[in-house]
Design a protein that fits this description.
This is ABC transporter ATP-binding protein. InterPro entries: AAA+_ATPase, ABC_transporter-like_ATP-bd, ABC_transporter-like_CS, DrrA1/2-like_C, P-loop_NTPase. GO terms for molecular function: ATP binding. The protein is globular and about 75 Å long. By secondary structure, the protein is α/β, with parallel strands linked by helices. It starts with a strand and ends in a 6-residue tail after the last helix. The strands form three sheets. Strands 6-7-8-3-9-10 form a six-stranded mixed β-sheet, sandwiched between helices. Strands 2-1-4-5 form a four-stranded antiparallel β-sheet, covered by helices on one side. It has a four-stranded antiparallel β-sheet with strand order 12-13-11-14, with helices on both faces. The chain folds into two domains: 219 residues, Rossmann fold; 68 residues, Alpha-Beta Plaits, CATH 3.30.70. The protein is 35% helix and 29% strand. The chain is built from eleven helices and 14 strands. A hairpin with a 2-residue loop joins strand 1 and strand 2.
C-alpha cells in the first residue's frame, strides 16, 4: 500500500533521514520506534507528502506520489505530534471545519461528526470550546479530525506525548479498536509499550537510519542469547555502577529510573558476582530480576544505549 524507497532528507548539510526503506501493507499495523530526534517526524512528513524528500521516492499503491500526491491525500488520515485545532471553536465546530476540508457536506458530514464524537468519547463536550479542554481531550479531538473521511491509512506521530496516564490509556484503547476493525496504521513513538501493544511489525530508527525491522518476535530473537538483570536497592551509587562495568567489561550497564540494569550474555552466571560487588561497595540489593528480552534490549544491543537516553 505505502512504500518508502531510499528516502533521504537533508536540511542544508545535515542529513536527517538517511536513505531508508519501509513498506506498509493493507490492514497492517506498523510501528516506527526510535528516540526523540531519530528522524521519525521527518519521515512521516515525507510519507504523507507534506515535505519533499531530498532523494528517493514514496509509492502509494505502486505509483509515485511526487507528481500526484492527491491520490494519497484523499484516503490518508494524519494525526500530527502538535495539536492542530482551533481553540476558540467547539469540538463539533472543529470537526465540521476539518470535514469540509475533506470535501464532506450535508447529512454525510453530520453523520461522520456524530460517529467520530462518539468514537473519541467527546459527545458530551461537543459544544464546549477546545480551549477549555485538557491536553488528553485535545489529543482525542486531534485523532477524531483525522478519522472524519474514513481514511484507509492512518499515520499517527507520537499521539500520546505530554498527557496524563488516563488519557493515554483511552487513546491507546481507541487506536487498538481501530486496528482490530481493520485500519491500516503507521504509528511512531519512543514508548516501547505502545508500539508493542498496537503493532504487528516494527521498524527501529536511530539517527536517521532504520537499524532493524521485523515482528516483535523476530526483533527479540536478535538478543535471544542475552539477558538483562534489573537491580534495585536503597541506594545505587555511581561507584557501584562503575564497579559492575569493570567486572563485566562485555556487558552494558545503565540506569532506568530507580534501577540499574545489566545487559550481558546468557551463558554468564552473574548473580553471585553482583552480590559480592555490592557487598564490597556497601550496597544492599533489595531486588534482582532476570528479565526476558524486550525491544528496549534490542535497541540497547544495536546502539549501546537505552532508547530514551
Amino acid at each position: 500500500m505505502l512504500q518508502a524507497r531510499n528516502l533521504q532528507k537533508k536540511f542544508k548539510t545535515k542529513e536527517v533521514v538517511k536513505k531508508i526503506n519501509l513498506e506498509l501493507g493493507a490492514g497492517e499495523s506498523v510501528g516506527l520506534l526510535g528516540p526523540n530526534g531519530a528522524g521519525k517526524s521527518t519521515t512521516i512528513s515525507m510519507l504523507s507528502s507534506l515535505v519533499q524528500p531530498t532523494s528517493g521516492d514514496v509509492l502509494w499503491n505502486n505509483v509515485s506520489i511526487k507528481d500526484n500526491p492527491e491520490a494519497l491525500r484523499k484516503t490518508l488520515g494524519v494525526v500530527p505530534q502538535e495539536i492542530s485545532l482551533y481553540p476558540e471553536l467547539t469540538a463539533r465546530e472543529n470537526l465540521k471545519f476539518f470535514g469540509r476540508i475533506y470535501g464532506l457536506k450535508g447529512q454525510i458530514l453530520e453523520h461522520r461528526v456524530e460517529d467520530v464524537l462518539v468514537k473519541i468519547g467527546l459527545k458530551e463536550r461537543e459544544k464546549d470550546q477546545v480551549k477549555t479542554f485538557s491536553g488528553g481531550m485535545k489529543r482525542r479531538l486531534n485523532i477524531g479530525a483525522a478519522l472524519l473521511h474514513l481514511p484507509s491509512l492512518l499515520i499517527m506521530d507520537e499521539p500520546t506525548v505530554g498527557i496524563d496516564p488516563q488519557s493515554r490509556a483511552y487513546i491507546l484503547n481507541t487506536v487498538k479498536r481501530l486496528v482490530e476493525e481493520g485500519m491500516t496504521l503507521l504509528y511512531t513513538s519512543h514508548y516501547i509499550e505502545e508500539v508493542e501493544l498496537l503493532c504487528d511489525r516494527i521498524y527501529i530508527m536511530d539517527e536517521g537510519e532504520i537499524i532493524a525491522f521485523g515482528t516483535k518476535e523476530e526483533l527479540k530473537s536478535l538478543v535471544s542469547g542475552n539477558q538483562t538483570i534489573e537491580l534495585k536497592g536503597h541506594t545505587l551509587p555511581v561507584l557501584f555502577e562503575e564497579s559492575l562495568q569493570k567486572h563485566f567489561p562485555a556487558a552494558t550497564v545503565y540506569r532506568e529510573e530507580e534501577s540499574l540494569l545489566l545487559a550481558l550474555a546468557k551463558e554468564e552466571e552473574p548473580l553471585p558476582r553482583i552480590f559480592a560487588i555490592a557487598a564490597e561497595n556497601g550496597v544492599t540489593i533489595t531486588s534482582a530480576i532476570v528479565k526476558v528480552p524486550s525491544l528496549e534490549d534490542v535497541f540497547l544491543h544495536l546502539t549501546g544505549r537505552a532508547l530514551r537516553d
